């Protein structure tokens, strides 16, 4: 490779042993360097070297994405591999003689669409990476952006496309077409493709294209309802509709909910209204502490006014200049700024009646945390920090959005072992500027101190003496049986944190896998419905939807409930912990103190570093694991991980058992 655009010819004879009379796919893999690769037009050419494609009856094969749950730990994610799926025929659920529209996608969730690659029917939907790229987001890599029940597509070039599968709709004499609202600039054009397959598969379907001009579509920058009448597609097999595909999109477009409509006249699918979550608004009397202490005025490069460390996870997003800290994480809720009040453990309990005071301007859409050291105050022992509690900055702000006052007693940790404060969980792209952090004796006259909201405890380690727990997050269904076999062979009990949506997708077989695990005494717990960075969701209602839909999915498929939750990507903040506590009594927010780092090493030339990391964290005293069955190497190392854990002499058990839960099975 030269580093520039070049044309490569690969003789098929180079693939020793391949059946050249049955070519199914070309796979690009084992990329030797990290970063972006661009692969352009790929085609079979005659042996003479001609690159002119031959004409044929138009068929196409849109890849079907089998859901693959990406790692919990923040880091690069792996897109699911493309496979083929037989679709279940979709018909109206209305009584005989009536008809109801079939919702294809209401764009209720970014992560459902661009992380799990599902539409509302839990059928595959994707741009296959063809839209314009985006950076600094955990839930999408391309400009397929969901917000307010709408989808915005920004094409990278003329080859960009986006598809959504229909589930083999039988439309004849019942459904007249597909409708959606579209917002697009004047002059925008696109091609609309419908794919059919008599076998109800996406393997080599028949495709018929119609241009937006042929459908009579014109745009003026406002949202309007448009229909895709099946009658406009000559020769369309309306008994076996499998895919809707948009291509050749000339300018950015925004789609509203997509639905198959009854009869010959469509109407916009009504977006379900979502009531705002109302939190308690009670207040508590103001108190007065013994003393004041200036912590940080952001004048030092690496230390605060106390001489202790301060700094952020990304110096480009946390900028300290001229006595102020400017923060804009671009909505990445996984990033934090830290300022310590001690080089070890500090007892803050004498100041329990005092307040953390933050002087700021801009957004208060973030969390404030107070971190607790581990029992021996030793930073070389895992976990470090041992835990922290987070509160919602906006609840403690004055109405002018200039000052925040948080009672130190509202941080539910052991305040005798305090490390310092963190600003975290930023969930908007609006800038926050902080000029001072300090402890003050009391609040100004007229400031109403809000009550402390219940919050799920954040747990990084087992509490039962001499215990060790494997907590395994969802991964690729193809590896599930190997994980089961390794656990059975070791004779141990573990905990699985499962994402709800793939349980409802029969093609993953995860429901059957987890039913088997339940029958063998393993624990199943919650991991969200679609695996978003939950603290980064735009509203409390969106957070509630993830929690409640996960509860429903687990209950429907496995017949159980749980009081244990692990956050996708490990992303934590006050809002998600408060909503968990409000919706699940006695819930526990489970993190980890042993990280395999499969997301970092599994697909590199040194996958054995997963073993190195596991051993290092165990040597530091870690006893609660995070890993995924996403990668072949990780699954292959599982028996060795178990052996390392057993050699500690600790007893291996489920998470609820290692947390001394009275409702857990006896050891």
Automatic annotation (TrEMBL):
Q: Which InterPro entries does the record associate with it?
A: Glyco_hydro/deAcase_b/a-brl, NODB_dom
**A Pfam cross-reference name:** Polysacc_deac_1
- Where does the NodB homology domain lie? 466-653
Does this entry carry the keyword Hydrolase? yes
Region of interest (Disordered), residue spans: 48-75
Q: Which PROSITE patterns does this UniProt record tie to the protein?
A: NODB (PS51677)
Entry's Gene Ontology BP terms? carbohydrate metabolic process
Required co-factors: Co(2+)
What keywords are annotated for this sequence in UniProt?
Carbohydrate metabolism, Cobalt, Hydrolase, Metal-binding, Signal
Q: Where is the signal peptide?
A: none
Entry GO MF terms: hydrolase activity, acting on carbon-nitrogen (but not peptide) bonds; metal ion binding
Which PANTHER family does the record match to this protein? Answer: CHITIN DEACETYLASE, GLYCOSYL HYDROLASE
What is the name listed in the Swiss-Prot or TrEMBL entry for this protein? Glycoside hydrolase/deacetylase
Q: What organism is listed for this UniProt entry?
A: Glarea lozoyensis (strain ATCC 20868 / MF5171)
